[in-house]
Specification:
Chain A: Keywords: Cell membrane, Membrane, Sugar transport, Transmembrane, Transmembrane helix, Transport. The complex is a heterodimer of chains A (299) and B (311). Chain A has 299 residues and is mainly alpha-helical. Helices cover 68% and strands 0% of the residues of chain A. With 311 residues, chain B is mostly helical. The chains are: A mainly alpha (299), B mainly alpha (311). At the A-B interface, helix 1, helix 2, helix 4, helix 5 and helix 6 of A face helix 2, helix 4, helix 5, helix 6 and helix 7 of B.
Chain lengths: 299, 311
């Protein structure tokens, strides 16, 4: 069903001219308007494709083990209890929060400094630095596992969350710097200059004038870093050998690769993994789209 | 800051003087943390990968370690069918995955860009898989594809597919199964990028086109598509590289199986280094992957006309 229904979305690339409600009196030919069904039908089909998997994981998490009912009733929270207590997800959760928040703070701080330099100054290695930033976009973290492992071993950071935090930050940095410098460029330089004239130094001027205007951008970049660190799997898997140091994605993988897969536990673990990310996105959705349109994608 | 204050006390400083008091060093100080982190944890590892690619390096067989010249590369290209298989599969995977993502992402963006009742809820819902990680996507689709209790069983009841087979362990279905799982998460990402760009198309253009009597399809071809061209090209390239590099999903969904059927080059490298401890050979394979990616990034830089106006 799922593979079959996807192509039906294709006939949709048609564009409705503008909001019809605002121009009631003009006579129009029939093909000027996108009929409502051309919006709701493909969207509905796509929604089914999107939501069925979500429903499925909820179903497995909430219905008793062994049940084949398509409704999670009678409802049970046993799977959550089991995953949280017996499968160490309480510990994984804590580690993931720590990793995510630390990555967020480190990435945003370092990227803010770098982004400001790129947006406001001309300096000798600027072009080279920007080129380096772009190139790192093409350096896959997965391919650097071995040397990274050696570096962290040298630094005695294997099996500490610090290694994962640094690795996530480093690979999150280039995009963050590019994004933030785009946001700063959108703040008129004259605002800062006005603040200098009023007696602020560069730092105060930045803090009072620019920083408040950057809030949506910082939220976008910070949430990106958090979600990335929260979701990413390979670094934690490779650099953390101690089970009490592991993060949620590794915990999920352990559940999946266990000899007899406990589907209820897997589903419950998956929901625990999703909750913080869903909350983050619910709050920042509005800013994300504006964040992207600020010209970041176009470089 | 003391310096800035000293400058400020000079008689009648010109308006921009304070701002330019420190800039010579300041930008370097500001990029230093980022630059150092990237040098230490990206640049140095990359260089060491090149170094190891010319070595026999295997911690479990130390007696063979040493300079190997181009042996690793020769072995990969002439003597390792698995290398070619994974390379072909990578290309296949990226091509199909990114192509479908672009197609559906564009359609989805065009739909949710229109005004309709329930738009923001609709957007939030169809974009939601974007937030889901590769591992979680695998977990979800493992549940869906489970032969006993997955959706495949209910579909088999309806006559789609066979009862009791797991789509992930069958060589004939595993590719499509993995593609669909990754599409579920990838299409929203594309749609968001395109939607962001769609919102910057001037409404006036469409109104003018409408006055001239252009149909919606014509408007799409002559206004929307040309406007989106750059965003589409760049996000497609970025996605292609990303899909090539991404190992989370396939590693956890199929583990590269069945029978190595879904092993991408990066996955093969991870297996060679982490499981087989053949670091030298893995480094050579990594170098090959780098060259491929380098080619992509050169195309990207050319297309994005990098370095135009910086300020």
């Amino acid at each position: 069903m799922i593979t079959k229904e996807a192509p039906e979305v294709v006939p949709a690339p048609v564009r409705e001219p503008a909001a019809p409600a605002r121009r009631p009196s003009r006579h129009k030919r029939a093909w000027d308007e996108a009929p409502r069904w051309q919006i709701y039908l493909p969207l509905g089909i796509y929604l089914v494709f999107t939501l069925v998997p979500f429903y499925w994981i909820l179903l497995f998490a909430l219905r008793p083990a062994g049940s084949t009912s398509l409704v999670p009733w009678p409802m049970t929270f046993d799977h959550f209890e089991k995953v949280w207590n017996e499968r160490d997800f309480a510990v994984y959760f804590q580690n993931s929060v720590l990793t995510g928040v630390a990555t967020l703070l480190l990435t945003t701080g370092v990227a803010l400094a770098g982004g400001y330099a790129l947006a406001r100054f001309d300096f000798k290695i600027k072009r080279g630095f920007m080129l380096a930033l772009l190139c790192t976009q093409f350096v896959p973290g997965a391919l650097l596992l071995v040397p990274l492992f050696q570096i962290f071993a040298e630094l005695k950071m294997i099996n500490s969350l610090g290694s994962v935090i640094i690795a996530e930050t480093v690979f999150q940095l280039p995009l963050s710097i590019i994004l933030i410098s785009g946001f700063i460029r959108n703040v008129p330089y004259s605002l800062e200059e006005a603040a200098w004239v009023d007696g602020c130094n560069r730092l105060t001027a930045f803090r009072i004038v620019v920083l408040p205007l950057l809030r949506p951008g910082l939220i976008a970049v910070g949430s990106f870093a958090f979600v990335h660190a929260w979701n990413h799997f390979l670094f934690a898997l490779m650099f953390l050998s101690d089970q009490s140091k592991q993060t949620i994605p590794v915990g999920l993988n352990t559940l999946m690769s266990a000899d007899s897969v406990d589907l209820g536990a897997l589903a419950a673990g998956g929901i625990i993994a999703a909750v913080p990310v869903v909350i983050v996105f619910a709050f920042i959705q509005k800013w994300l789209i504006t964040g992207f349109s600020a010209g970041a994608v176009k470089g | 800051m003391a310096q800035a204050a000293a400058v400020a006390k000079r008689p009648a400083p010109p308006r921009r003087r304070r701002a330019s008091a420190t800039p010579r060093r300041l930008p370097y100080l500001l990029i230093a943390p980022a630059a150092l982190l990237m040098l230490g944890f990206i640049a140095y590892p990359v260089v060491s990968v090149f170094y190891y690619s010319l070595q026999n390096y295997n911690p479990t067989k130390p007696w063979r370690n040493g300079f190997a010249g181009f042996d690793n590369f020769v072995h990969a290209f002439t003597d390792d069918p698995q290398f070619w298989d994974t390379l072909t599969f990578s290309a296949q995977w990226v091509f199909v995955e990114v192509g479908l993502q672009l197609l559906f992402g564009l359609a989805l963006a065009l739909i949710v860009n229109q005004t309709f009742v329930g738009r923001s809820l609709g957007r939030a819902l169809v974009f939601s898989p974007w937030a889901v990680s590769g591992v979680l996507t695998s977990a979800i689709w493992v549940l869906l594809y489970n032969s006993q209790t997955g959706i495949t069983r209910y579909l088999a009841d309806m006559g789609i597919g066979e009862y009791g087979t797991s789509w992930l362990s069958d060589t004939s279905t595993v590719f499509s199964a993995a593609i669909v799982a990754d599409l579920w998460r990838g299409v929203p990402f594309f749609a968001i990028l395109i939607l962001a760009d769609l919102q910057s198309v001037s409404k006036d253009l469409y109104e003018a086109a409408e006055v001239d009597g252009a149909s919606r399809i014509k408007q799409f071809w002559h206004i929307t598509l040309p406007h989106l061209k750059d965003a589409i090209v760049l996000s497609t390239l970025l996605r292609a590289v990303w899909e090539f590099n991404n190992v989370d999903l396939l590693y956890t969904l199929t583990g590269g199986g069945p029978a190595g059927e879904t092993t991408t080059l990066p996955l093969y490298i991870a297996n060679t280094s982490v499981d087989a401890h053949n670091f030298g050979y893995a480094s050579a394979l990594t170098t090959v992957a780098f060259v491929i990616l380098l080619f992509c990034s050169l195309v990207y830089l050319r297309l994005s006309k990098f370095g135009g106006g910086a300020k």
